[in-house]
């Protein structure tokens, strides 16, 4: 039986709820027990665990000395925020080496309820040391003190051992889970849109190019060093041989030689010509990037033309929505922007649903339901990690999730939003960016609307056509397009969304913006053949993590942040 | 309540099972009803649907004439393989235009049980035409006849409207769903590993390079056309001014002028020098790709060094496993291989789990359980699509899923596998590739083992160290490494998997293979600091789709195939 939702809950809660007893869920495919299944107990009752034999593994967070040279280790295995207290007697192992932050230990022992200890509900008394992965504290870059996030960012491979980043990864994983469940439950198909593309969704913007020209050039250079190209003299010599062989053929023909003799001579001439052609071709080879008529010769690149990393899977998703009704993608997208802000990454993940038979209002309903679903999911499944973020980073983050989960989103048009901002400017509010109809709302405007004015998520819709992409449907006013953005407290724009336009307008818009029509012909086909209203949106996944955790820097919201100068 | 598994089942079965009546599940966020929820009924009873008013949308597959000029349309919306028969009377609309393959229609009407019609369990009698998205049959490339897959591959944006590709997309979506459920239920965290990297997992292989040097070069070229660089005369003139200003300062100083006058003159000299410096810098600018000492100057590239698309997220996943115990990724990977086979893509998706505290045997157990889980999932959730593939492409595909789901996988060492192959060669079996200890098993060997010899999945483990990557653990025999591959009928290698090695050996291996140690220092850190045994594997997602569907060409198993010369 493939479906195992009770098992799913069991794994999340750390107990097998099916039989009602406080048994401990062993990790599958391993002989250890996740620490979560010992210390996270929804019934707050650890008494049934006393006396049970378990084996656990994890990394030492802190250690303190006990009596008779024994040690209490705080062991974390990432399955949850909390640590299991592990008690090791002096005779077990070199305790000095063991009691260092970052040491990996696998131990077997018996669970006990420490009397009178309010902090520790349950601890493990070690009977067997199975494995110690030591650490030289002189080298280990993450000592036990609390470290600034900017500092741990330099140790991106070790930072998941910190409380903050491990909690971020658990929140990300939960949000990814919620995303798949939300869309799959609602009949969306999960479609993996392509990463490398010859056409560009936005028709502009900073894109990363994908190429094999550099490596081909290097290979060629090495090859030319090993087998140097023919010299001019080589080519001249080959030409001379062609002439000679030609003369022989002419002579034989004029002297009416036998067919066989002429045939042999012609064959020799042909070989000489082939040899010359090869030499000439090889002598033309230039090391480095191939050029043709002063431009880079992309016909020699892997895909035969300039190819870029995707900035959005939306156009391809539309093809799927216009066949399969509902599709969504969850994948990486790329922008080669050199902005060093706390809100931009060169590589980030996007969730993009697309629905046929749906208009902008359906789209708003879907976006609102999806954001609420994620908030509810975190409140329900990630209580402990959310408490941690509330305590350490943003005391309002849990209340924010509750508010967003339970409050209907405000919905206002772009025109209403601008009018409202102009009004508050009149009343003395100062913005860095000037407000007038036609501007792209900046982050400060968005955050004012959602954080100050409405104090809840705000959907702004019907944007001026000139500030949005070519593929959006023009409204009857001819000035605005059926697009919407979802603004939320803490991050501003969380979701951006167009409703798709119809064919004729589409072609005009592509031409107006000077985009290469041939590259977009496939896209126009979707409008020519069996077209229908469809709409969708894009949610920046790392923005959602920022929103949930209250972290200020998006670089702490993704496993391996990529920004200008950093891809290590 | 975020968890909604009963809703999930409901959506999949097309009925709301909670109340037990045969109500129809409306699409959320839209006023239409998915066709699946009308025609797919596990109880085979459509009688309760008669008389219900619904609105549906979809694309016409075929049409036939009824009495009095009416039409019967076969409508498909991608929610399932089957079509809904839609009956339109002559007065409703231009029926000639409507009854063409590819036309999109949205219609409202009443469900009826056609008497005596065995093919159609239920049909829709149209009362209202809501929308028609026409098709010009002269242009539409996918007529109603059955089309070869090679042909529809040229219309990658329209091919999800074919039965085969829409079924592939549903199978893919189900497999992705199964993957997330399998790992999340078992306590793995979903980690999105980076796509752009300065270091390369395998240390070799054809990789795509990511760059902004071409676009920067183009921008510069345009800029230089608009603002030409300074001429030599400009620079000379600026030098002359610097000299003049210098002379003035010298004169003032020697004539003991006032401090203020000297100060002014010095300031002027400084400005002149700055101007000269700017001119000199600008005159040095060269259009095109920046070079330094004859080589491409990657310090000017976006990440400051050569950067490549990932070939595997495994090394980064290890960092997460060595912090959080269990992690998995599901993302795109890239190989710039120019092989035009039916089994290779330049862009494909990989599922990669990684577990700390786990050895090769745990890894085998996990891989076997995962593959079985996916097979069970498809048998349970994708019955209709699997029947389609069995009928059209591979009559054994359902039996194969059943066999894999229920049969323990054979487990043999590489040495045993080679002995066995040598034995069958002795008995007259011919392979294209020679068999001896030390070879990398080729596809024909793998398929012989799993399809002919054992007729079930085979796990081959303990491979010769020289044919595997640097990061694998050496066995006690010093000849083989703790690695395993899972071979399945139809595709051969489905899963490849190493068990990770310890620090010291690791460094030696990196050095032995001539890899740049500084780029791998972070990776070695994982072995230096709190190391532990860990293992994982990689499953090629498109291979799994081939295995499940029985399709012969991997290009039909992914939404947008990328191969040499094709990224459109």
Structural description of this entry:
- Chains A, B: InterPro entries: Aa-tRNA-synt_II, aa-tRNA-synth_II, aa-tRNA-synth_II/BPL/LPL, Asn-tRNA-ligase, Asp/Asn-tRNA-synth_IIb, NA-bd_OB-fold, NA-bd_OB_tRNA, WHEP-TRS_dom.
- Chains A, B: This is asparagine--tRNA ligase.
- The structure is a homodimer of 568-residue chains.
- In chain A, 37% of the residues lie in helices and 19% in strands.
- Chain A is α+β, with helices and mostly antiparallel strands and 568 residues long.
- The first copy, chain A, folds into three domains: 5-141, Nucleic acid-binding proteins (OB fold (Dihydrolipoamide Acetyltransferase, E2P)); 164-209 and 307-556, BirA Bifunctional Protein, domain 2, CATH 3.30.930.10; 210-300.
- In chain A, strands 6, 12, 13, 14, 15, 16, 17, 18 and 19 form a nine-stranded mixed beta sheet that branches. In chain A, strands 1-2-3-5-4 form a five-stranded mixed barrel.
- Strand 8 (209-211) of chain A pairs antiparallel with strand 8 (209-211) of chain B, so a sheet runs across the interface.
């Amino acid at each position: 039986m493939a479906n195992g939702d009770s098992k799913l809950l069991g794994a999340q809660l750390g107990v097998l709820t099916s039989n009602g007893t406080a048994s401990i869920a062993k990790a599958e495919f391993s002989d250890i027990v996740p620490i979560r299944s010992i210390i996270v107990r929804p019934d707050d009752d650890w008494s049934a665990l006393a006396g049970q034999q378990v084996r656990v593994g994890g990394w030492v967070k802190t250690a303190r000395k006990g009596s008779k040279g024994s040690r209490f280790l705080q062991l974390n295995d990432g399955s949850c925020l909390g640590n299991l207290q592990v008690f090791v007697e002096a005779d077990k192992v070199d305790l000095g080496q063991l009691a260092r932050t970052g040491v990996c230990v696998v131990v077997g022992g018996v669970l006990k309820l420490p009397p009178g200890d309010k902090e520790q509900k349950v601890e493990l008394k070690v009977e067997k040391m199975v494995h110690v992965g030591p650490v030289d504290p002189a080298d280990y870059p993450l000592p036990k003190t609390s470290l600034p996030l900017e500092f741990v960012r330099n140790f991106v491979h070790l930072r998941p051992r910190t409380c903050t980043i491990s909690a971020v990864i658990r929140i990300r994983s939960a949000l990814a889970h919620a995303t798949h469940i939300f869309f799959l439950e609602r009949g969306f198909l999960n479609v993996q849109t392509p990463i490398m593309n010859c056409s560009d969704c936005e028709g502009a913007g900073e894109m990363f190019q994908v190429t094999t020209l550099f490596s081909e050039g290097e290979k060629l250079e090495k090859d030319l060093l090993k087998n140097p190209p023919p010299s001019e003299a080589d080519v001249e010599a080959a030409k001379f041989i062609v002439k000679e062989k030609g003369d022989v053929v002419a002579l034989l023909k004029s002297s009416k030689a036998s067919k066989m003799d002429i045939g042999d001579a012609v064959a020799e001439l042909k070989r000489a010509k082939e040899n010359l052609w090869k030499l000439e071709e090889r002598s033309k080879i230039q090391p480095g990037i191939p050029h043709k008529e002063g431009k880079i010769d992309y016909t020699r690149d892997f895909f035969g033309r300039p190819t870029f990393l995707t900035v959005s899977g939306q156009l391809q998703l539309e093809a799927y929505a216009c066949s399969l009704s509902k599709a969504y993608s969850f994948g990486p997208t790329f922008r080669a922007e050199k902005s060093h802000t706390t809100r931009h990454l060169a590589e980030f993940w996007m969730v993009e649903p697309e629905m046929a038979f749906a208009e902008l209002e359906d789209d708003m309903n879907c976006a609102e339901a999806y954001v609420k679903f994620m908030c509810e999911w975190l409140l329900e499944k990630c209580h402990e990690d959310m408490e941690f973020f509330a305590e350490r980073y943003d005391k309002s983050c849990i209340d924010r999730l509750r508010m967003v989960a339970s409050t209907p989103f405000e919905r206002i048009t772009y025109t209403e939003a601008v009018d409202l901002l102009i009004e508050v400017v009149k009343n003395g509010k100062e913005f860095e960016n000037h407000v007038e109809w036609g501007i792209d709302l900046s982050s400060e405007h968005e955050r004012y609307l959602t954080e100050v004015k409405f104090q809840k998520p705000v959907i702004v819709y019907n944007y001026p056509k000139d500030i949005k992409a070519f593929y959006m449907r023009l409204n009857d006013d001819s000035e605005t397009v059926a697009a919407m953005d979802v603004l939320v407290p803490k991050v501003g724009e969380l979701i951006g969304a167009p409703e798709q336009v119809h064919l004729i307008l589409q072609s005009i818009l592509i031409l107006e913006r000077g985009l290469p029509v041939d590259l977009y012909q496939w896209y126009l086909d979707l409008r020519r053949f069996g077209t229908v209203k469809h709409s969708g949106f894009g949610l920046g996944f790392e923005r959602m993590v920022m929103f949930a955790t209250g972290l200020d820097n998006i670089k702490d919201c993704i496993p391996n942040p990529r920004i200008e100068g950093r891809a290590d």
